[in-house]
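User: Show me a protein chain along with its predicted structure.
Assistant: Here is one chain, sequence first, then structure tokens.
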Amino acid sequence: MHKVQLAYTLAPQRDADRALHHPLIAMLAALHASGSISAAARELGLSYRHVWGELKRWESELGQPLVLWAKGVYGPVDALRNGMFHAISVGSTTGYATVDYLAWPVFAPLFMLLLSSVATSAGSAGCGIKMVRVLILVKQARREMTRLVHPRAVQPVTLGAMVVDHRVIFSVLAFMLVYGVTTISLAMLLVLTDLDPVTAFSAVLASVNCTGPGLGSVGPAGNFSVLTDFQVWVCTFAMVLGRLELLSFIALLTPSFWRK
């Protein structure tokens, strides 16, 4: 059995609110006042994952439920409205959120975050991989599968009535490689600073795609203020890379670009 240690003092009635101090009690008080774990974590200056883990740990230690864990269900109209609004908002990298969609089934927020990587168009202000690159990759993959069956077949990659040049295809492949390496490297750098993997990877992905909210502590009910200064600089660098199209920014850092 876990021993609960309480620190208390005797004080006049006007200071009665200072009579009891314990992390669990402070956590439950913040949770009762805010009504959600995300808001309670922000009030206490802690991460969503830490508060959630501590509540579960104390429930296990005490053998009694401390919080009523319940999942609400939207009506058909509200479900359609909230689902469409947030899918469009996050997918188009607008970044608006009216509800804490991290309380939805885990597939929904994860799908919307990944959608922000591919749903933006080439002529928009959105970042990420862009829809046209995904289309070229899909057509290139389909062509390679056809060539495995018919090695002599001539099947160029086309967009509309135009044939996509090989240099464009190679440029898309290079972009995908740089995008993947950049996202994984920066996310691992955040994990190295003791940030939980869900928050780290989603923060980098949201920054590179210029989406806004991510998952975990940087979800729609939270913000990036829970990160340290170094972690914020990493996300800022990721956002600049995503906004300037990765390859263009990296080209500026090469010495050959500045040679006369």
